[in-house]
Protein: Periplasmic binding protein domain-containing protein
Amino acid sequence: MTQHSRDLSRRRLLFGGAAVGAATLLTACTSNETPAASTQTKAAGNSEGNNAPGKKVVIGFSAPAADHGWMGAIHANAKAQAAAYSDVEFKEVDGGSNSEAQRSTLGTLIAQKPDIIVVLPHDGKEVNAVALQAMQAGIPIVNLDRAFPDALASRLVIKGDNYGMGVSAGHYIGKMLKDKGVANPVIGEIAGLEIPLTVERSEGFKAALATYGFTVKNRRSAEFTSDSGQREASQLLQALPKIDAIWNHDDDQGIGVLAAIKQANRSEFFMVGGAGSKLAIDAIKADNTVLKATVTYNPSMASSAVSLARLIAQGRGLGDLTELQVPKEVTLASETITKENASSYDKLGF
Structure:
């Protein structure tokens, strides 16, 4: 199956299963675990509390092009969550393939004066100025996933726990190696694009490994794509004739990583992935590759971003909180998927 086919199959799964995302964040916004789609749809149609219809609002949305399984899920989740509310008009603009294109389409969107905009930037630093422009024009920004460096550039930041992803991966690898009695393990790391969230992941990984007395022997930077994953994994395997464990930051990237491992006929190590794709979850359940676990970075955060954007635009807060306004920052927990619990995460796979 080609990468394109895999992405399409993931998107079909998303629309057929977990598309509506995390409407229940309105009552519990501390975890990235999302209930079944039927529960989510019912919640969005509930006539009580935060889900009760309110003032009609226009929510703008901008994210990079959906040329990656996780990013495709971000787009689909945001759109489906908006459709679950009768009081939301959803305006999505093309995020393009780079920050320059995204700045341009965001400028056009700002001129249309939506009530609020949800933005997942290509790069927070490069899109920061246009987010500030929106905020100064009285249009709140919900900053999704990749943070802007300026706190004034957003009303709300909602993201996965990148540092926590690294910590989860580090603890899984550290414990596994300790249990095997490996004293001086050779640990490889295949990171993603060198943007702030990737740095946070690596820092968390390093910190967790240090608690076991372990360090990363070789770190490679890929680009969150299958091709780049295969390229960097091939170089990592050539550099390290013996490996005990690898952490790959991204499961889409991991398709190429696993291809490189198979091509090199290497199997003396185990691997942990990142994000929680359906393909990764299935591979972990089948237990027929070196991939033994993945740490979640769930695209349901896009659903939550839309739900919270709606409340902000309507001047409402979260029903279970004493405070009258939606919090300034929401960080979703990173969980570890293994063979033992993989079936529980099937509906979350993108």
